[in-house]
């Protein structure tokens, strides 16, 4: 019996696969070896792509690291969207617990590495800032899609999301040295109580 030969990938498919390998390698390197350890040599070794192949798709290390940041943001939001669609958080505390869980995800450390490095690297700062701005806006939009938070006024929701995001980012870093589950849960409850307090004071909607 004759079988069909495997379909050859198109040039576009080969390009997309190579780019994905490079971005995956950059993400893994940032998470495991840090910003300083994420050299082009490290990325090439992890991806199996030569330097020449890398530069056919990215004109610099910076461009590749920014692509890695965008991909981490995309994955973060995709997981959140899937979780909300499958099992919407029943209240503010559950919504904040989901947010905290995602900020503790292994890939999220990529953001910490890049944000700290951007403090003293003007080119990285200039490239990362608009990506972070879009990411933060998308996080707020995801929060707006949670029924338990939908009634919060925009200003209040933005304040809650910003406070929670900043807190959970700092907590994710500090707990690697001094974990304190009791204090961490108390802080989450404090944020949830704030949201619940605002919700109870909203005027009845017709």
Automatic annotation (TrEMBL):
Entries under Pfam families matching the protein: TetR_N (PF00440)
Domain HTH tetR-type: residue ranges: 16-76
Alphabetical keyword list: DNA-binding, Transcription, Transcription regulation
Classification via SUPFAM superfamilies: Homeodomain-like
GO molecular function, one term: transcription cis-regulatory region binding
DNA-binding feature ranges: 39-58
InterPro entries: Homeodomain-like_sf, HTH-type_TetR-like_transc_reg, HTH_TetR
Protein name: TetR family transcriptional regulator
């Amino acid at each position: 019996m004759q079988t069909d030969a495997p379909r050859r990938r198109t040039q576009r498919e080969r390009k997309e696969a190579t780019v994905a390998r490079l971005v995956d390698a950059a993400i893994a390197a940032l998470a495991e070896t840090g910003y300083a350890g994420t050299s082009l040599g490290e990325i090439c070794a992890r991806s199996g792509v030569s330097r020449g192949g890398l530069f056919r798709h990215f004109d610099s290390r910076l461009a590749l690291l920014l692509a890695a940041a965008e991909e981490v943001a995309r994955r973060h939001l995709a997981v959140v969207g899937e979780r909300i669609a499958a099992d919407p958080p029943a209240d503010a505390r559950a919504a904040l617990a989901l947010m905290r869980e995602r900020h503790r995800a292994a890939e999220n450390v990529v953001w910490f590495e890049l944000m700290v490095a951007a403090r003293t690297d003007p080119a990285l700062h200039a490239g990362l800032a608009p990506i972070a701005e879009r990411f933060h806006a998308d996080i707020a939009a995801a929060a707006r899609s949670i029924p338990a938070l939908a009634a919060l006024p925009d200003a209040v929701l933005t304040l809650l999301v910003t406070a929670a995001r900043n807190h959970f980012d700092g907590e994710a870093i500090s707990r690697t040295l001094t974990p304190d589950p009791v204090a961490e849960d108390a802080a989450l409850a404090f944020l949830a109580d704030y949201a619940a307090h605002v919700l109870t004071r909203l005027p009845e909607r017709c």
